[in-house]
Model the fold of this input.
Amino acid sequence: MKIVVSLLIFVSSFGSCTRKDDHTGKTPLVEVDGNFLYKEDLHMAIPAGLSKDDSLLFAKHYIRNWAEDVLLYSKAKSNIPKNNEIDELVENYRKTLIMHTYQQELINQKLVDEFSEQEMIDYYEKNRNLFILEHSLIKGLFVKVPLTAPQVNRVRKWYKLETSEAIDHLEKYSLQNAVSYDYFYDKWVPTSDLLDRMPLKVLDPESYLRFNRQVELKDTAYYYFLNVSDYRKSGEQEPYELAKFEVKDMLVNKKQVDFMKKVKDDLYQQAMSDKKIINY
Done:
């Protein structure tokens, strides 16, 4: 089999004197037994930002791989007799691809993927079993300060209070003295994230935090203060704030399924009415 490779074209900035009108406006770069790889296609394949040497190396590998694929396909095709099963698989895939493309076009044109907050909450409540936590979550506040930090007694008072005044005091104090200060009263975080940062030595630390909402610990260097304002254990329903994005995806999918079911039913009923469906 004949392989014609013109790397010189690539090296010289893809300059070409090939007649383009024979190849729908594209410039042949490689020919393998009547199959063509075009300069424009290679341009598209080369990653941006490569140096000249790296681009040349990439082009050599790309051309070699392309040629090998063409040769292997040609060899396989000539050695496998006409296979009706392959033809059927190809045709089925083509049908599936066309139908999928058409369905996506219809969905994009006809459906609006917007839902009210109440619609999402209602779906969340009616399908509680779909939103189950795999690990526990907490909301709260965490402060870590050195043993040598001043006025630690004030921190002991402030971290237990969830008032804006106490939080303001803690924030200002932490800027000067704390090693860590995390405010997460307004968001859920995995319990394990906090446990990894605290020297809590109990048999079941997650259950401990569930029933002990205000925790003070210390080791040889630091004090640790944690106030747990809310807790969800594993196996409970996932909080709506976290589940709402999944809820929307589910509603979108349901809406699409219902829409396509109606489209298919309408097509069937119309075909029956037009006598395009004949039962023998």
Summary: Confidence is low (pLDDT under 50) at residues 1-21.
